[in-house]
Amino acid sequence: MIMIGERINGMFKDIGKAVVEWDPKPLQEWAKKQELAGAHYLDINTGPNAEDQVKSLKWMAESVQEVTNLPLCLDCTNFDAIEAALKILKRPGMINSCKCEQAEIDRLFPLAVEYNAALIALCMTNKGVPKSAEDRTAFAMELVANADAYGLPFEDLYLDPIVLPVNVAQEHAVEVLETIRQIKTLSNPAPRTTVGLSNVSQKTPHRPLINRTFAVMAMAAGLDSAIMDVNDELMVDAIATARLVLNKDIYCDSYQKVFRQHSC
User: What is the C-alpha R_g of the chain?
Assistant: First the structure.
């Protein structure tokens, strides 16, 4: 289970303020906290208030790389910003994200190949998120075909079936789980799967419990990774335990500690 730390994101007030003020300290503090918690990647996102996303995302990547060797997940809707940041990464990173729109595919898939980066691709178009697993899987098939055409290794393609909050789109959760199952049958080797885990509980009063429950259920369906709160210790313990029960890791009495130590 590849854990992508969600916290260096300008949507959070402290990070948003830091980006506007060009203050690297909050970014670096969260980088170290998430690495200590067992993150495998660190997602970095300028947020909506960055005046210059190209300059800001590059600066964020430089600032975070001063204190950690973890690979970075570049999270931005500005593709010029993603390309600029890819150029200065110390380790191959991840691009977040590409919708199933040919113009986006034609821009981002070649970048992923050129920079040996993984790529998160969304099972949706500009028209929105489909409701059914069948429609989500149809987009997944199109994304897999494009990965093959562009020479992007399937194991570097992370398909995101798009999780919506259960308090407004409860019927979508089971469709996401079924989509994950179907994605794992699309190719050999299969593409990987990921979700924005915290989305499932957005604006509910039971966020940690809902997140943990959905994570374990999705892992049983074949989930490979998640953009998540890696500093939720009970969440990480649940993931470590799910890997144990799914026979992904060998049991030892200190399996929770061992799982946290297996960062990239």
Answer: 17
Tens digit of pLDDT for each residue in 5-19?
999 999 999 999 999
Give 128's DSSP letter: B
Mean pLDDT of 185-214: 96
Contacts for 164 with CB less than 8 Å, ≥ 6 apart:
129, 172, 173, 199, 200
pTM given for the model: 0.96
Phi, psi torsion values for 230, nearest 5 degrees: -75, -10
pLDDT number for residue 263: 56
Element (H, E) at 54: helix 53-65
| pLDDT, tens digit, 9 for 90 and up, residues 132-164 | 999 999 999 999 999 999 999 999 999 999 999
> What gap in Å lies between CA 104 and CA 222, rounded to an integer?
26
pLDDT value of residue 93: 98
Among 8, 101, 102, 103, residue whose Cα is nearest residue 61: 8
Angle subtended by helix axes 233-245 and 207-221, to nearest 10: 20
pLDDT digits (tens, 9 = 90+) for 61-95: 999 999 999 999 999 999 999 999 999 999 999 99
Max CA distance (Å), the chain? 50
Cα distance between residue 91 and residue 213, in whole Å: 32
Q: Other C-beta atoms within 10 Å of 199: how many?
A: 16
CB 1 within 8 A of CB 239: yes
Contact 144, 187 (CB under 8 A): yes
Give buried/exposed letters for 152-166 (b at 16+ CB in 10 A, else e). bebebbbbbbbbbbb
